[in-house]
């Protein structure tokens, strides 16, 4: 039997990343748990110190309930090395479309995400290979690919 999970992304500023990734993945900002007016109210109820509150939206979820919840956990240090885990955003439509069509879709998604604050790193394509992707970083430098 599979288990449910939450993806946790360490960051310095949760709210901007929550909004970036909500837009990137077509997710929504997660509402606070039932019975709480805000996440800060919930966090207070479980003993989180006041100094760690007030960071704004820090969680997103799939509005269809299919993908994992993502929590942007505030940490004091900045990202300093390459990710050991990254997200792949599947924007090409898959192998049922021509490479040219997939390339156009990946490029369009990269353009959209750059407008949201992502940075384009490099194109991943080789002559003769039926694959096209773009490596990018989110606003805090976390790597992800669009393919």
Task: Name the descriptors.
24% strand; alpha/beta; 147 residues; 3 helices; 2 domains; 2,3-Dihydroxybiphenyl 1,2-Dioxygenase, domain 1; 4-stranded mixed β-sheet
Low-confidence stretches: none
Helix content range of the residues, please?
25-40%
H-E order: EHEHEEEHEEE
Summed over residues and divided by their number, the pLDDT gives a mean of 92
Return the domain count: 2
Strand order of the largest sheet: 1-4-3-2
Q: What is the terminal-to-terminal distance? A: 29 Å
Categorize the overall geometry: elongated
Reported for the largest beta sheet, the result is:
4 strands, mixed
Question: Quick recap of the structure?
Answer:
The chain is α/β, with parallel strands linked by helices. The chain has helices at 14-25, 39-45, 99-116, and strands at 6-11, 28-29, 59-61, 69-74, 87-89, 119-124, 133-137, 143-146. It folds into 2 domains: 6-74, no CATH class; 87-146, Roll (2,3-Dihydroxybiphenyl 1,2-Dioxygenase, domain 1), CATH 3.10.180.
Structure description:
- With 147 residues, this protein is of the alpha/beta class.
- It folds into two domains: 6-74, no CATH class; 87-146, 2,3-Dihydroxybiphenyl 1,2-Dioxygenase, domain 1 (Roll), CATH 3.10.180.
- Helix content is 25%, strand content 24%.
- It has a four-stranded mixed β-sheet, with helices on one face. Strands 5-8-7-6 form a four-stranded mixed β-sheet.
- The protein is elongated and about 55 Å long.
- The chain starts with 5 loop residues before the first strand and ends with a strand.
- The mean pLDDT is 92.
């Amino acid at each position: 039997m599979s288990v449910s999970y939450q993806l946790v992304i360490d960051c310095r500023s949760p709210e901007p990343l929550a909004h970036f990734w909500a837009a990137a993945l077509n997710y929504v900002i997660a509402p606070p748990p039932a019975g709480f007016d805000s996440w800060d109210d919930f966090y207070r109820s479980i003993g989180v110190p006041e100094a760690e509150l007030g960071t704004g939206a820090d969680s997103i979820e799939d509005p269809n309930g299919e993908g994992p919840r993502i929590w942007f956990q505030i940490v004091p240090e900045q990202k300093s090395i390459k990710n050991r885990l990254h997200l792949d955003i599947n924007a090409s439509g898959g192998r049922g479309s021509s490479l040219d069509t997939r390339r156009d879709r990946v490029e369009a998604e990269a353009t959209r995400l750059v407008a949201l604050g992502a940075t384009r790193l490099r194109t991943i394509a080789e002559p003769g290979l039926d694959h096209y992707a773009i490596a990018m970083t989110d606003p805090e430098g976390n790597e992800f690919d669009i393919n």
